[in-house]
Design brief:
The chain is mostly helical. It has a single domain, classed as Methane Monooxygenase Hydroxylase, Chain G, domain 1. It contains three helices and no strands. The chain is elongated.
């Protein structure tokens, strides 16, 4: 166990950062799931409202992924991979509807 005050503080900081990173990753996963659900809804019922909802969820997900990469929560390649998955899903849905 830590003996010095600085070591004890570092343990507290590491735990705080771990929880923040866990929360951030969870939010990214949730937003990605929402995007895929929005794709499914738009695929079944194409319309202006569902398309606007789809675009809004994609913008939120892309923004959150970029911020996670910027903060160092996600590796840049992981972020790029996730954004690519979302883009492929979006293009597939839009191509099928048109």
């Amino acid at each position: 166990m830590a003996n010095t005050n600085s070591a004890k503080k570092r343990i507290q900081i590491a735990e705080r950062n771990r929880l923040e990173n866990k929360n951030y990753k969870s939010t990214v996963r949730t937003l990605m799931k929402r995007c895929f659900v929005a794709c499914g809804i738009f695929e079944k019922e194409p319309g202006d409202e569902s398309k606007a909802d789809l675009q809004k969820t994609f913008n939120l997900a892309f923004s959150k992924i970029d911020k996670a990469v910027k903060k160092g929560v996600l590796h840049k390649n992981t972020g790029a991979n996730q954004k690519s998955r979302l883009s492929v899903a979006l293009k597939k849905v839009l191509k099928e509807v048109v």
